[in-house]
Amino acid sequence: MKTNDNSNENNSNAQIEENENENENENENENEIEKENQKENEKENEKEIQKENETKAKEILLGNFTNFYHSNKFKDFSIFVKGKEDKQIEFKTHKLILSVRSRFFHSILYQENESEMYFLDCNEETMKNILKYIYFADLSFLEKQNEFQLVSLLKISSHLQLDFLSKILENKIIRSLGDSNVFPILKEMSSFLQEISKKNALIF
């Protein structure tokens, strides 16, 4: 009887020990999973902090550029356009910004020491929007333009070789075409298309 009791007791102890080992393994696994989850959460938090910092840095940069744009400091190039009653409107700008953003200005300002340029077939509002794009990559003004204003923007954008903006304008003009405006728009663009054709003829 004692032998059987001892055997049962040993079996019972072995079972208890096995259960304890299993519980320890489960706890270890749970701890490992918890650590992994904690690491993932920390990585996600770091990513969120990084995004927030990048957003703040861009906001600061935009603020700096806004102040830079509205201040007359360091402005070394004047753009003149047609104003009301044929008065000329002057936009004071920075050669460096213009040459970085526009292939046209880069070519002109690299070769010649110009301090001013006239675009008398461009109005004040159009040039103001073009400069918004050049300085800030701002496209918000596009939503307020009708199809004829878009054509005016496309003319100057193409002339200044602002390729990305020109492509956007072309697509918006095409989408705006309808039975009521297709011929007036084509008429408005005729001189512009002729200029493009001449340029292409010179290239080829």
TrEMBL record:
Sequence ranges of Acidic residues compositional bias: 17-31
SUPFAM superfamilies with a match to the protein in the record: POZ domain
Transmembrane segments: none
Domain BTB: start-end pairs: 75-143
Segments of this protein annotated with the region Disordered: 1-50
Pfam families referenced in this protein's UniProt entry, alphabetically: BTB
Name of the molecule in the record: Pep-cterm sorting domain-containing protein
Recorded coiled-coil stretches: none
Ranges of compositional bias, category Basic and acidic residues: 32-50
Low complexity composition-biased segments: 1-16
Superkingdom per UniProt: Eukaryota
CDD domains, alphabetized: BTB_POZ_ZBTB_KLHL-like
